[in-house]
């Protein structure tokens, strides 16, 4: 019986029996004409990048090179074909002029005050937007409106609000009985006091920029796990302790990024001041960017203006390096 079963089992062929002749093996044919196809695709991609390259060159590279040439020459007109080379003379003149340091001081004041207010107000709005309330989507839509308004339009809007003759702010003060009927004692918001005008410009900038700060902080708040707050409730931690011990430490990476970005933007502020005050009164709102603009286009000292522009570029490059370092630290903290 065992011999019959053994004889019924199939016999496996030997390895040598499976060997086929070389001419009967299936061999993949070599791929031909692939290198020319890859090269043609590469040329097509390069040609598609040419418009973007021209735009970048025309908007960024060429102005940087032209401004660098102006900063080391005594250029008095853009139509001037040649100008004497002065080296670092323009930078020496700029650094020895007290107007630079005055405008730098006003720029630092604008940067510190506006950034601080935007961070505080933005954090409060972010907490409100993060709350589980009905109609939260509508509230988020309303909050984003000031940021969607162009800065030029925002500056013109606030200039109209603060106008002494027909401004909405003085009309409101009159309705509240704080201003006389003839507006004789109404404050001249943008033309009487340099400090008052600067603070009004800061108010306009804060109104414009708070939404983007709030949404950036909101993104950080939504990344905080709910279990952390539930554990704080079990430990009977109050709102203040929860804020200082949980929310702010976990939100610190987002806060650092927001701070550096806003400092960069506030340091090179130009448009809102140009529209609202033009740098006045008595140059009380002239920041370093507006000072560079006035030197180049009003005083026709393009060499001095270009040197000032490069000083701003160097300062922004330092702030950008700080921003990248803060961003790297925040990414490492998330690992």
Summarize this entry quickly.
With 335 residues, this protein is mainly alpha-helical.
Verbal overview:
The protein is mainly alpha-helical and 335 residues long. The protein has one domain: MetI-like fold (Orthogonal Bundle). The protein is 71% helix and 0% strand. α12 packs antiparallel against α15 (302-334). The protein is globular.
Terminal Cα span: 70 Å
* CATH architecture heading: Orthogonal Bundle
Under CATH, the topology can be stated as: MetI-like fold
Global morphology: globular
How many strands, which pairing sense, and closed or not: the largest β-sheet?
Answer: none
Reading off the top of the CATH hierarchy, the class is best stated as: Mainly Alpha
Order of helices and strands: HHHHHHHHHHHHHHH
Question: What radius of gyration results from the CA coordinates?
Answer: 33 Å
Spell out the key features of this protein.
disordered N terminus; mainly alpha; 335 residues
Topology:
Blueprint: H1 2-8, H2 15-18, H3 34-71, H4 89-95, H5 98-130, H6 136-143, H7 145-148, H8 151-161, H9 168-175, H10 194-222, H11 226-234, H12 239-267, H13 271-276, H14 288-298, H15 302-334
Helix pairs in contact: 3-15, 4-15, 5-10, 5-12, 8-10, 10-12, 12-15, 14-15
């Amino acid at each position: 019986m065992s011999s019959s079963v053994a004889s019924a089992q199939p016999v496996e062929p030997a390895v040598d029996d499976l060997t086929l002749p070389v001419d009967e093996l299936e061999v993949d044919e070599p791929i031909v004409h692939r290198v020319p196809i890859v090269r043609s695709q590469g040329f097509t991609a390069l040609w598609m990048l040419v418009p973007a390259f021209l735009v970048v060159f025309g908007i960024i590279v060429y102005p940087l090179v032209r401004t660098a040439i102006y900063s080391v020459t005594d250029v008095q007109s853009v139509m001037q074909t040649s100008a004497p080379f002065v080296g670092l003379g323009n930078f020496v003149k700029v650094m020895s002029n007290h107007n630079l340091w005055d405008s730098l001081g006003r720029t630092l004041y604008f940067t510190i005050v506006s950034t601080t207010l935007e961070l505080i107000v933005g954090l409060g709005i972010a907490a409100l937007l993060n709350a589980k309330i009905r109609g939260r989507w509508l509230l988020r839509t309303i909050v984003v409106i000031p940021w969607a308004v162009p800065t030029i339009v925002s500056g013109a809007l606030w200039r109209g609000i603060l106008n002494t003759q027909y401004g909405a702010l003085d009309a409101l003060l009159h309705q509240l009985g704080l201003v006389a009927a003839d507006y004789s004692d109404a404050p001249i918001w943008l033309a009487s006091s340099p400090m008052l005008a600067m603070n009004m410009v800061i108010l306009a900038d804060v109104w414009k920029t708070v939404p983007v700060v709030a949404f950036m902080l909101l993104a950080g708040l939504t990344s905080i796990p709910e279990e952390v707050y539930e554990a704080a409730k079990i430990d009977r931690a109050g709102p203040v302790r929860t804020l200082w011990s949980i929310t702010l430490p976990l939100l610190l990476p987002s806060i650092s990024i927001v701070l550096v970005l806003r400092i960069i933007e506030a340091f090179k502020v130009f448009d809102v001041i140009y529209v609202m005050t033009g740098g006045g009164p008595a140059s009380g709102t002239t920041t370093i960017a507006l000072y560079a603009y006035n030197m180049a286009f009003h005083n026709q000292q393009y060499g001095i203006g270009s040197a000032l522009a490069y000083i701003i570029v160097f300062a922004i490059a330092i702030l950008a390096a700080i921003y990248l370092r803060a961003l790297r630290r925040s990414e490492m903290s998330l690992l």
